[in-house]
């Protein structure tokens, strides 16, 4: 390290499940702990290469694992179990079903708690945002375009949901205030946004034309392209053969034997 002009750091104790390791970049933690898990004490393995860094390390101490008292880790165990269940398909499907049931039953945020007392409801108010100017620093990781699709152009008090965010959370919303763009907003921002708006609309129209074109090709093919059926292959797959092992086309019930003909 001295010859290379780099400084030596201590990782501190870590395990094969550690989420954070001292002096290791967060994005490198998984690769770091995985590679060094197979290294014996005192051994100097090959450098560990990650997308951003290269680690040259040596295991200086290994301690035997100890099982901590359950009361010391009970809360952590409970959180791990809950998080593991939230990542299952069964949980996501049950949440989606419940969210749709709520959407079909209530038209107001206050009614959710009364109509569904077993559902944990947390309420809050967002800061003002727009489709093109959304601050994920609020801790809300949803698609603002989906919000606009349900609430855009509606009056305050409008109810919307369910909204599924990128992390699997489900939200129901009530519009508190809507501020349409003013003439000043339009004059100030349209010159900046004009090219992106045009490109987005053009891409959307191209997609629509391509879908129309491919559908037209499909329908035309159905009407003009002859479909040939290999009845012999069907007979072989179904095991319908004669004494000589040849496809028994008559046993298939064909009135005529020929390409594409059958009864």
Question: Can you offer a commentary on this structure?
Answer:
It is built from 7 helices and 4 strands; from the N terminus they run αββααααββαα. It is mostly helical and 263 residues long. The strands form 2 sheets. It has a two-stranded antiparallel sheet with strand order 1-2. Strands 3-4 form a two-stranded antiparallel sheet. The radius of gyration is 32 Å and the shape is extended. The chain starts with 28 loop residues before the first helix and ends in a 25-residue tail after the last helix.
Write a concise synopsis of the structure shown:
The protein contains seven helices and four strands.
Binned, the helix content reads: 40-55%
> What is the alpha-carbon Rg in Å?
32 Å
Largest sheet: 2 strands, antiparallel
What is the typical, i.e. mean, pLDDT? 80
Strand tally is 4
Strand order of the largest sheet: 1-2
Helices, by number, come to 7
Structural class: mainly alpha
What is the percentage of strand-forming residues? Answer: 5-15%
Task: Pick out its properties.
7 helices; two-stranded antiparallel sheet; mainly alpha; 41% helix; disordered C terminus; 263 residues
Any chance you could write out the topology, listing elements then pairs?
Layout: H1 29-36, E1 48-49, E2 54-55, H2 70-86, H3 89-105, H4 109-115, H5 144-151, E3 159-164, E4 170-174, H6 183-224, H7 231-238
Antiparallel strand pairs: 1-2, 3-4
């Amino acid at each position: 390290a001295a010859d290379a002009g780099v400084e030596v750091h201590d990782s501190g104790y870590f395990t094969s499940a550690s989420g954070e390791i001292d002096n290791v970049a967060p994005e490198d933690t998984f690769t770091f702990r995985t590679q060094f898990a197979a290294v014996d004490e005192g051994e100097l393995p090959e450098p560990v290469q990650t997308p951003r860094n290269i680690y040259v390390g040596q295991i200086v101490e290994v301690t035997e694992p100890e099982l901590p008292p359950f009361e010391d880790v009970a809360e952590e165990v409970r959180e791990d179990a809950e998080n593991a269940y939230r990542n299952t398909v069964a949980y996501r499907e049950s949440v989606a079903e419940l969210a749709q049931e709520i959407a079909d039953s209530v038209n107001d945020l206050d009614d959710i708690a009364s109509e569904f007392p077993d559902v944990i409801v947390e309420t809050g108010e967002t800061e003002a945002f727009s489709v093109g100017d959304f601050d994920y620093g609020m801790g809300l990781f949803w698609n603002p375009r989906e919000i606009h699709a349900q609430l855009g152009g509606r009056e305050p008090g409008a109810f919307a949901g369910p909204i599924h965010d990128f992390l699997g959370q489900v939200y129901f919303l009530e519009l508190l205030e809507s501020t349409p763009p003013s003439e000043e907003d339009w004059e100030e921002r349209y010159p900046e946004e004009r090219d992106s708006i045009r490109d987005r609309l053009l891409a959307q129209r191209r997609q629509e034309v391509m879908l129309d074109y491919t559908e037209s090709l499909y329908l035309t093919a159905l009407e003009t392209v002859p479909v040939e059926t290999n009845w012999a292959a069907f007979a072989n797959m179904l095991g319908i053969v004669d004494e000589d092992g040849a496809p028994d086309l008559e046993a298939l019930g064909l009135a005529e034997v020929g390409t594409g003909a059958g009864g």
